[in-house]
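Lesson 9: reading folded outputs for more than one chain in a single document. The general rule is that every protein is listed as its sequence immediately followed by its structure tokens, and records are never interleaved. Here is the first one.
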Amino acid sequence: SMDLTVGLNAAGLLGGEYDAAIRIHGNTPISPEREIPCRLTVTGVPDVGAMPGSIDFDSVYVGFPSTRQLIVQNRGSGVLNVVDMRVSDQAYRVDRTSLTVPPLGNEAVSVSFVPASPGPATATLTIQSNDPDTPARAVELSGYALEPPDIQIHPSSIAAALSIPSSTRRSLVLENAGGSNLVFAVTTLLTPPAVT
């Protein structure tokens, strides 16, 4: 008799069952070829990732949320189960807290900056999953909240009665009652008169 060593290698494979056969050829007249079934069961391992690794919302007006997309990645060979996504500051929100990502797949998550008061806001979004190496993946969040500008115009309308070719001038007062610089442009819209 002779012992043969059969090697099985799961490197580069996704989780699942793989069927194969080992063929042995010999010089026996009755069965010159024998086939031995072989099954490899691979236990996949998920590997969580996040793109981008941090999100900077820059400047956002209070009362006007800003939303960015976060891609949760599974770079592994097994199904990634995200069981929770939590943010450490109430100024930030995510549109879902759990999801499933197939091997080598991606899922998009919306992250929003919803500041209630002006000032800087930093937070950590923690993605908790079944990744055995990194069960908690952190994504840093940052943003700055500003009080929005608030334009006030006085008077609220202008009227004049002129005969041709007269002209006149009126004054408009623009006031910024808000907390940020007001940027504006002025244009005119002339409506044709009705013929009487």
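And here is the second record, again sequence then tokens.
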Amino acid sequence: ERHSRQALLENTRAQAKYQRLVSSMVNILISSGFVTESGSEIAGTGALADPELQDDLEILEHREAGLRLQYPNLSARLRLLSVCLGALPDVIQGNALATEILFPNGSSELVAAVYRDDRLSNYGIQLCAASARAALESCLERSNGQVRILEIGAGTGSTSEGVFDAIGDLKDRISFDYTDVSGHLLRSARARFRER
């Protein structure tokens, strides 16, 4: 079956803001050898009919579970990826908002787990917290009063939590302002970090 790129975009019912994304996904399929583009026509290749590919697609959920067991450090990322891919058609068609998928029922847990349960992210958070501690101590040495800290785009608060742990003993000498564009994330942080 052959289609023009425009016909493919129309068949996906992608909203205008997602048409570049869908077109990029077609380019990935082309570079991976699953479809070809000749002139203005796009067609599937024999790779799509490969029985091994079909078997892989049918056991994708089981393969994901196996990868989680084999690579527990990636479990949260795999979960997030699985949820996002499963919802992609609804998002590009405008039937769901991407933020509803990332933060189901207003919960930041799906995204926060990527930072909290990942060694590389934790290492980055530790470096940030140590740097914040060193900068704060330097400022306090030169200041007789309080030091104000402004965190812009705090998101799920995973990095904030690491910084709070690192500077907790100095909290009487600092003022910390936590910002994000998401009202939900701010309310969640307010409840989570109220005593910090």
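What the second record shows: The chain has a mean pLDDT of 89.
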